[in-house]
Specification:
It is a single chain. The chain has 24 helices and no strands. It has 538 residues and is mainly alpha-helical. It has 2 domains: 262 residues, no CATH class; 242 residues, no CATH class. α5 packs parallel to α9. The two termini are 32 Å apart.
């Protein structure tokens, strides 16, 4: 028996477990990619429109979200970037981040999470090599990324873009996914818990995204040295549909190989089920506050809420600080400013759009915190609480109460960061209070998403992960709603899209009241279902 004995059997098992996830990722990516190309053709039908789009891409806010616009030509030039370059600039970073997230979650789920649940120990009891589970996990990640890369390339080529450029962009998504999947395997060796390993992987992704963003803002034409620290920038630097060059993909492939070697070395230095980083010893006796359901929820959820709040505070401040460059754009290109409605409208639209971005991020926190209740149920800890006298209403009600406080804190952090950044950039304190009010206006929408997840946990716990569908739809609507010309009836399914973008638009009391009522009703439905159903495990 070799170290790889049983790899193919474990791979087939992993493919069977993830068949629905793979299908959903493929359909989501295919639908988004295929719809973007005709939408770009409609939005930018001629060279003049594409040149104007290229000029707008030089603003810091756009550079942070999309990276350098390769193919735009020199500032003020009449160079037509072409449809393909516009599509990649609009869609590229979104797809690269999506495949990175998918790879991190898949790598951790099939390694550390299986060890934590005891599945790897059962598998290793059979004739299975020591390296087989991790190898099968990386092969699964590679197959998933190859499928998504082929889907992306196929959708771009079928909609009329250059075949070579389409294939190159698909390959860049594949290599980026492999790099982050390999980094996640390293993270899985460090900690004994899958949640911590996923957190480390996501933190690395966030740090590398921030490095790319800061580097690209420093040099919008092609990125500074900071950009070259990030695999996301390497994928962009192939300059697809412009001056195509494939050698940056070698950096991503090299990082994946190095990370796999490091993961193998780290795996050889630990015992099965253990992480290299020492875990903290718990107290001999729990403090009194942990004996209540709300106290336990506070203990489990508070670290995530604080981390998200700090991250959103920093992100909001970065976006707010970029507002000063909008005035520079207005001064340099008064025609574009008039086309967009003037500098005041431009600033208010920018602030409203960033507030919506930050609110969309908080919906992800809402679903994550509620689904943690389902995770606790599957591990049996909720059953222990109820056996000690806690009521089911108290367990879920306490959980939702702590989650609500955490969401308010996260929204407030993003609001303070955005308002402080805008205030510093525009030297006008009025922006701080206006943007705190504008961002907190999304609280009913965020609570409605939280309540939807709670209703799923209460009524159909095995399908509770479907709550992420609302987060995904919200992201699509907020980021691509105008480009894809999504009908209002479909866009308004998302509570964030339904909320008016203050200060660019007037707030609607009816919308805020309706969302608040929906949050109350859905929470009540979740509590009702949680009281009536049996507690279930994995």
């Amino acid at each position: 028996m070799t170290a790889l004995t049983g790899t193919l059997r474990i791979l087939r098992w992993g493919l069977r477990r993830d068949r629905i996830r793979i299908l959903l990722w493929g359909l989501g990516v295919a639908a988004t990619t295929a719809a973007t190309v005709p939408a770009v053709r409609d939005a930018y039908p001629d060279a003049a429109a594409r040149i104007a789009r290229a000029e707008l891409s030089r603003t810091p806010g756009t550079v942070v979200m999309t990276g350098p616009f390769f193919g735009a030509g020199a500032p003020g030039s009449a160079h037509d970037p072409g449809v393909g370059a516009v599509v990649v600039n609009e869609l590229g970073v979104f797809l690269l981040v999506a495949v990175a997230v998918m790879s991190i979650l898949a790598a951790v789920r099939h390694t550390r999470a299986d060890e934590e649940a005891g599945r790897t120990e059962l598998v290793r009891a059979l004739p299975t090599g020591r390296a087989a589970p991790a190898t099968a996990a990386m092969l699964l990640v590679a197959l998933m990324n190859a499928l998504l890369g082929a889907v992306i390339a196929g959708c771009l080529a079928v909609t009329g873009l250059d075949v070579v450029g389409s294939a190159a962009f698909g390959a860049s998504c594949l290599v980026t996914g492999l790099a982050f999947g390999a980094l996640a395997l390293c993270a899985a060796q460090l900690t004994g818990h899958s949640r911590s390993a996923s957190g480390i992987g996501m933190a690395v992704l966030g740090a590398l995204f921030l490095a790319r963003a800061v580097g690209d803002v420093d040099d919008p034409s092609g990125g500074s040295w900071l950009s070259w620290l990030s695999p996301i920038a390497w994928a962009q630097q192939i300059r697809v549909f412009d001056d195509l060059r494939l050698w940056p993909l070698g950096l991503g492939a090299g990082l994946a190989v190095v990370a796999l070697v490091v993961a193998a070395v780290l795996a050889g230095r630990r015992d099965l089920g253990e992480g290299l980083l020492p875990g903290r010893r718990g107290r001999a006796a729990a403090p009194g506050r942990l004996r209540s359901p709300a106290g336990m929820a506070m203990r489990l959820l508070w670290p995530s809420a604080v981390a998200w709040t700090v991250s959103l505070l920093v992100l909001g401040a970065v976006f707010g600080g970029l507002a000063g460059a909008i005035e520079d754009l207005v001064a340099e290109s008064p025609d574009i400013a008039r086309w967009l409605g003037g500098s005041k409208t431009l600033l208010e639209s920018y602030a409203g759009l960033v507030a919506a971005y930050l609110a969309a991020a908080v919906t992800a926190l809402a679903v994550q915190m509620v689904l943690r209740l389902r995770d606790e149920e599957m591990t049996g800890r909720i059953e222990h609480q109820i056996a000690m006298g806690a009521s089911r209403t108290g367990v879920m009600g306490g959980w939702l109460g702590v989650t609500s406080v955490g969401l308010v804190l996260a929204l407030l952090g993003s609001a303070v960061g955005l308002g402080a950044g805008m205030t510093a950039a525009m030297e006008d304190r009025a922006w701080l209070w206006r943007l705190i009010g504008a961002t907190l206006g999304y609280l009913p929408a965020v609570l409605a998403v939280m309540a939807l997840a709670a209703a799923l946990v209460g009524l159909v716990p095995r399908a509770s992960r479907a709550g992420w569908a609302m987060v995904g739809w919200t992201a699509v609507v907020v980021f691509f709603g105008e480009l894809l010309d999504i009908p209002d009836a479909a866009a308004d399914i998302s509570p964030v899209a339904l909320t008016r973008m203050v200060p660019a638009e007037a707030s609607s009391v009816a919308v805020l009241g309706g969302l608040s009522a929906s949050a109350v009703v859905l929470s009540a439905v979740g509590l009702w279902g949680f009281r009536r159903r049996n507690l279930t495990g994995a």
